[in-house]
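Ops channel
N.P.: pipeline sanity check, posting one input/output pair.
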């Protein structure tokens, strides 16, 4: 069987690709398919997050084993039919480190395998890829990076405290640059002892 998966780039614009992949291929093959479909350059680390129906991460599957004991599950260990058990199942894919590309995947259809097709294959493209990784989409960005909103009450006494005030007269004008410089030089030579010959 062949799984048709829609991969959506996490950005404000509509950018997605449909990839077909055999059920007995693994997440490593899907990772390569996504790189090809979206023309992602380099060999950056990547990972899949397998999600439940509520969007909670059930399992994280990296490209390479990062566990201390060296026996963690990696992409080549997980078959497509294990990651997607039914139509509508979703995964989250991250690619890169400094420039982080994020994608949402959904199994949209299970179809029969076609002869003489080299899977995975991109069967549909929509939207132009940006040159660099986009910032987070609007909803997520606002929840993570937004400042705490200020209430009107925070400024009630502003006019009273600062509005009528004037800074005129606060500067006495008695500041003498030359005198200050002389004091500094005297202190410097006394401490340093460099004025002694």
């Amino acid at each position: 069987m062949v799984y048709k998966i829609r991969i959506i780039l996490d950005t404000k614009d509509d950018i997605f690709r449909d990839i077909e992949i055999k059920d007995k291929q693994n997440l490593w093959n899907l990772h390569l398919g996504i790189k090809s479909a979206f023309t992602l350059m380099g060999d950056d680390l990547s990972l899949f997050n397998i999600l439940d129906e509520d969007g909670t991460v059930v399992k994280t599957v990296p490209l390479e084993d990062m566990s201390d004991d060296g026996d963690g599950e990696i992409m080549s260990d997980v078959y497509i039919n294990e990651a997607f058990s039914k139509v509508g199942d979703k995964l989250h894919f991250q690619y890169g480190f400094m420039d982080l590309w994020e994608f949402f995947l959904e199994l949209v259809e299970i179809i029969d395998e076609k002869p003489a097709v080299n899977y995975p294959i991109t069967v549909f493209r929509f939207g132009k890829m940006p040159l660099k990784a986009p910032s987070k989409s609007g909803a997520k960005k606002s929840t993570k990076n937004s400042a705490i909103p200020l209430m009107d009450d925070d400024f009630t006494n502003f006019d009273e405290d600062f509005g009528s005030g004037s800074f005129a007269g606060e500067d006495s004008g008695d500041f003498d640059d030359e005198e200050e410089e002389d004091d500094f030089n005297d202190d410097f030579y006394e401490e340093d002892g460099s004025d002694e010959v």
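N.P.: looks fine end to end. The chain has a mean pLDDT of 79.
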